[in-house]
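User: Teach me something about this protein's shape.
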Amino acid sequence: MGPLGLGPSLSLMLLFLRTIALITVCSQYLVNIEVPCFRYSKSNGGCKKIGFPIFKLFPVILAIILIWIICIILTAAGVFEENSGARTDARISVLEKAAWFRFPYPCQWGIPTVSTASVFGMLSGVLASMVESVGDYYACARLAGAPPPPTHAINRGIGIEGIGCIIAGLWGSGNGTTSYSENIGAIGITKVGSRRVIQFGAIIMFLFSIIGKFGALFVTIPDPIIGGVFLVMFGLITAVGISNLQYVNMNSSRNLFIVGFSLFFGISLPYWVRKHPGYIDTSK
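Assistant: First, the predicted structure itself:
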């Protein structure tokens, strides 16, 4: 690789690593540092100085904002090439074309169609999502310090996800509804597992869903930032999954076979598919 190709690659890698470094520093080393601020309380007779644990609560958001600002400065200075994934104006047309306000409604793209091929195709995705969701429920309970979820709670969760998929199909969102592993990773980083936080977050999402510019703004986040956040989140989820093995008898040959085969098969199958793209053909 020559200097012409090495420069853009290094810049993308540096942004990727800086995102990881900022999340690591904020979530692991600055958690006990509180930013001084003031709160007014009538019962205490006026303003009171308190400490706000901003690094503990918002490590991911702080890392995204700081690296995003750096990308904006470097983009304005002309450091990145025109087709670089680190440029903040690479997808600026999406933000320009987005409407300020847009109210989604059922069947906005027409009446949903149903076919045998689409049903079986989505069924495979739904079954895989159900298996993932069960693992997510246990990982979420573990990170939140709650006991393992009982069977009836898991059934209710899967049922709600099914209702969400039906609503998503009526609204034509193009995707189903399932548990999001990155949010579980956020619990491990921020140490916030309150259901009240999720409820307020849902209200905020409802409100901002009608503001088209707000959603389009997140499309302009550079790719290295997304990659750095995903690496931290999925890494934490992987560690939580492995930590559950402490409750398993690893002296059993059956358990060793299940763990070893699952890990090696999951790592080797994607590599095999990339090397043999014509063996599995699902047609168009």
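Now, about its shape. The chain is about 65% helix and 5% strand. The chain has a mean pLDDT of 77. If you'd like, I can walk through any region in more detail.
User: That's plenty for now, thanks!
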